[in-house]
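Work Package 3 (structural annotation) set out to generate three-dimensional models for the target panel prioritized at the project kickoff. During this period the team completed the workflow that converts sequence records into discrete structure tokens, so that structures can be stored uniformly alongside our sequence database. As a representative example, we reproduce one entry of 341 residues exactly as it appears in the project archive.
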Amino acid sequence: MYTTTVHGAHDVRFDDLTPVSPGTGEVRIRPAFNGICGSDIHLIENPETSGYVLRHDADGNLAMPVGHEFSGTVEELGEGVTGVSVGDRVAVFPFAYCGECEACTRGMEECCERPTDLPGGLSSSVTVPQRCVFPLPESVDLHLGALVEPMAVAWHAVRLAEVTPEDAVVIAGAGPIGLGLFFALRAQGVEKVVISEPSTERREVAEALGAQVVDATASGFSAQVRALVGPGRPTVGFDAAGSAPAFSAVLRLLGLRGRMVVVAIHTREFAFNPTMALLARERSILHTYAYSMADFREVIDAMAQGHYPTDGWVEVRPASELLDAVEDLTAGEGSKILLEI
């Protein structure tokens, strides 16, 4: 058995793993699929600037486990576990919240003040608290189960933005989170949605999934968006691109009291004039982070209803191809890669 661990920049190893028997209230899982997240790429390329709270071994050497988007099968139950059985297929909420701080008592587990990181999902065996385990219905396979985490990021953003079917929405970016926003909006009855994307390949994928798509770099971009969502201007914008030009372009499109929702992680500072961008039209900017337990449950329900097709944007590779997959994603090739464990 193995666990995948980062020991330094571009130093990823499949270390030997001794399975941990579950204690009271815990569940041992055999992971099946693990998705590669942009944060995993940052961790592998430069751990020190990845934003992670890094873990070290007993000798003080970096030993950071990889993987937080994963599904698997329950193999062993600890004492006191109910509602989950050996053999159940599950998605895993990838951090253990304390359940006692202000955030947790308000249902904002994503903002827990005392979270505990779980073992990496790119492993042969993982032991986690039962509360982090979400059984999958029959119609949701383990491939989809590994997508619950990133799709919950998008679902959470749509929920916090209080989008309604009457809104007109523009999304910057047709990567996994941008597509997740599109799926979440469609599942919640929002029909006026346009995705802005500069990549021809990603535009074609989004169009094949039923989205209205425009080229973010084309002349007449603003007019195209307004023609598709009109009459009037978009009321909600989502930044799933993480670039200053994309953020600014969508913000400028919004109408009166438009809401700009930042879902992407911006790694560089950039400037904009809030008076010109926000004040005159009473626009607002909202930033969202991760997801709550409720978001996980709602995404799984939406998956069971068929709102999350995977054709054309999800690729499966063996776990041994992790570094090749990271290289391809860094080069802009593909969209979402699941590693089979």
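The two ends are 11 Å apart (CA to CA).
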